[in-house]
C-alpha cells in the first residue's frame, strides 16, 4: 500500500465516510465522474471513465471527429490524495476527491485540463521557477427562472426587495444576502478553500470573492470546487448563482482576474524584482509575452459566444492588452505592492472559464515572453478604453488564432489544441443555428 493510498483510507475511516464523489474537471470546468459507496472504493485501483467525456461540448454534444486515441476508449481515474475533502452539504458523511486522468500505460491523458496545467507548470519547473497565482471571481445572484426565454433578474434580499441601481462596494447590499454568504464561508472552510475578501461588485447583486495566493494547480482546484459550492448554496436559498460572463443586459460582465508572479525555486525570491526592488527584465518580458500571445490564447479566456459580450468599452473589462500601474482600464494591471509581492493582474478572463486552462494559458503566455525576451509596450497612464481593440471579437476568430500559434501548441500539446478547437467550433455551429428574439423582433416584418 502506497503512502497516498494509506492516507486516503485513513482519512475515510476517520471521517466515517459512507459515499465518495470521484470527480474530474471536464473541458468546461464542470464536475464529471462517479459516486461510489465507500465499501466499493479502492484508491489503489481507482476507476474507469470514457475518455470521450473530455471532448464534450458545453451542451453535452461532441465534435464530429473522434479525438481519442482509439474508438471510444476508457481511461483510468487515479485519486489525488491532496484533494480529499468532505462534501459539506451532503446528508450522509460524503467525501469528494479529484482524480487524475491516465492512460492504461500510466501516461497522462493529454485532453484532461488538469494535466494541461501540469504540462505548462513543468516548463517553469525545468527552469527552476515556480509561478504563484491568486484568482478573483465575480458572479451574480439571480432569481430562479426555469424559462430560458425570460431575462434574469436579481433576487429578493432580506429586506424583501431587489436592489435598486448599482451598489459597488456597498456593505449593506452584501448584507442583503448574509444567510447565503454565511453558508458559503462555512462550507468553504470545511473544504479548506482559502477565501480572502468578499465585496459587492458593480452589477446588481453581483459579488466578488477572492482566493489567497498559492501554487497554480491547488488554486485551480479551489476555483473548481468553489464554483460548485456557491451554486449549491444558492440553490438551497432559492436562488441561482451564475458564472456566465455576461448574464444580464445592461449590467457589467463577470471576470476571473488572475494575479501572477514567479519565484525562484532555489531562493524563494520573486524574479519580477531586482535586488534593489526595481522591476526586473523577467517582469517586463512576462508582460511582453502576455501582450504577444494572449490574443492567440483568447479561446481559453473567452470560451463561449456569451463571453465576448463582456469585453466592451467602459464596463471594467479590457478591449486590448495595454498595461499600466494600478490602471484598471488596462487588460494587464500591475497593482501597487512591495517588491516581494510584485505581480501582474491579467484582467482578460471571464469567470466562465475552465480555471485550469485559463491559468495555464496565462502562465504559458508569460513563460513564452520570458523565454523569448519579449519587450512590452510602454505602460499606459491614461484610459485604455480610448485605445484600439486588439483582441478577437468572437469565438471563431479566437479559434483560428489559436490553431495558427505554434508556440502555444508546444506548451499545451498539439493534440489538445486541435481537440479544444474542434469542441469550440462545434459549440459555435450549434449556437449559430439558434434564431434569437432580437432577430425575430427586428427582422421578421421589417426586412
TrEMBL record:
BP GO annotations: glutamine biosynthetic process; polyamine catabolic process
EC number, as in UniProt: 6.3.1.11
Pfam families: Gln-synt_C (PF00120)
Broad class of enzyme this protein falls into: ligase
Cofactor(s) required for function per UniProt: Mg(2+)
UniProt domain GS beta-grasp: residue ranges: 15-106
Record-annotated GS catalytic domain positions: 113-447
GO molecular function: ATP binding; glutamate-putrescine ligase activity; glutamine synthetase activity
Keywords: ATP-binding, Ligase, Magnesium, Nucleotide-binding
PROSITE patterns xref list: GLNA_ATP, GS_BETA_GRASP, GS_CATALYTIC
Domain of life from the UniProt record: Bacteria
SMART domains associated with the record: Gln-synt_C
Record family assignment: Belongs to the glutamine synthetase family.
PANTHER family: GAMMA-GLUTAMYLPUTRESCINE SYNTHETASE, GS CATALYTIC DOMAIN-CONTAINING PROTEIN
Record-given protein name: Gamma-glutamylputrescine synthetase PuuA
Amino acid at each position: 500500500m502506497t503512502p497516498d493510498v494509506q492516507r486516503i483510507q485513513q482519512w475515510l475511516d476517520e471521517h466515517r465516510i459512507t459515499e465518495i464523489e470521484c470527480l474530474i474537471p471536464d473541458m468546461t470546468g464542470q464536475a464529471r465522474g462517479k459516486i461510489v459507496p465507500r465499501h466499493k472504493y479502492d484508491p489503489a485501483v481507482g476507476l474507469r471513465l470514457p475518455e470521450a467525456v473530455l471532448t464534450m461540448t458545453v451542451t453535452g454534444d461532441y465534435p464530429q471527429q473522434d479525438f481519442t486515441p482509439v474508438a471510444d476508449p476508457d481511461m483510468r481515474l487515479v485519486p489525488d490524495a491532496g484533494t480529499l475533502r468532505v462534501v459539506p452539504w451532503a446528508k450522509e458523511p460524503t467525501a469528494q476527491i479529484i482524480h487524475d486522468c491516465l492512460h492504461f500505460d500510466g501516461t497522462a491523458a493529454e485532453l484532461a485540463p488538469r494535466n494541461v496545467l501540469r504540462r505548462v507548470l513543468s516548463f517553469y519547473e525545468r527552469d527552476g521557477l515556480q509561478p504563484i497565482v491568486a484568482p478573483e471571481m465575480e458572479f451574480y445572484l439571480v432569481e430562479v427562472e426555469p424559462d430560458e426565454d425570460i431575462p434574469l433578474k436579481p433576487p429578493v434580499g432580506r429586506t424583501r426587495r431587489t436592489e435598486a441601481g448599482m451598489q459597488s462596494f456597498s456593505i449593506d447590499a452584501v448584507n442583503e444576502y448574509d444567510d447565503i454568504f454565511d453558508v458559503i464561508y462555512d462550507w468553504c472552510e470545511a473544504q479548506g478553500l482559502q477565501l480572502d475578501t468578499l465585496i459587492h461588485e458593480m452589477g446588481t447583486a453581483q459579488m466578488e470573492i477572492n482566493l489567497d495566493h498559492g501554487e497554480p494547480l491547488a488554486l485551480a482546484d479551489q476555483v473548481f470546487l468553489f464554483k460548485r459550492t456557491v451554486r449549491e448554496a444558492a440553490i438551497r436559498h432559492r436562488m441561482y448563482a451564475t458564472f456566465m460572463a455576461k448574464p444580464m443586459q445592461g449590467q457589467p460582465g463577470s471576470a476571473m482576474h488572475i494575479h501572477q508572479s514567479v519565484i525562484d525555486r532555489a531562493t524563494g525570491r520573486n524574479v519580477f524584482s531586482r535586488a534593489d526592488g526595481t522591476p526586473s527584465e523577467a517582469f517586463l518580458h512576462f508582460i511582453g509575452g502576455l501582450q504577444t500571445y494572449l490574443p492567440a490564447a483568447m479561446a481559453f479566456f473567452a470560451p463561449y459566444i456569451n463571453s465576448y459580450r463582456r469585453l466592451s468599452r467602459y464596463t471594467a473589462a479590457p478591449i486590448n492588452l495595454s498595461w499600466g500601474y494600478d490602471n484598471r482600464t488596462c487588460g494587464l494591471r500591475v497593482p501597487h505592492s512591495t517588491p516581494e509581492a510584485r505581480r501582474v493582474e491579467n484582467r482578460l478572463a471571464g469567470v466562465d472559464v475552465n480555471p485550469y486552462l485559463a491559468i495555464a494559458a496565462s502562465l504559458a503566455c508569460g513563460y513564452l515572453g520570458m523565454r523569448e525576451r519579449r519587450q512590452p509596450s510602454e505602460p499606459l497612464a491614461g484610459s485604455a478604453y480610448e485605445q484600439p481593440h486588439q483582441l478577437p471579437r468572437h469565438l471563431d476568430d479566437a479559434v483560428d488564432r489559436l490553431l495558427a500559434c505554434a508556440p502555444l501548441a508546444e506548451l499545451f500539446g498539439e493534440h489538445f489544441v486541435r481537440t479544444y478547437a474542434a469542441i469550440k467550433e462545434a459549440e459555435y455551429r450549434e449556437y449559430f443555428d439558434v434564431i434569437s428574439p432580437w432577430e425575430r423582433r427586428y427582422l421578421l416584418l421589417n426586412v
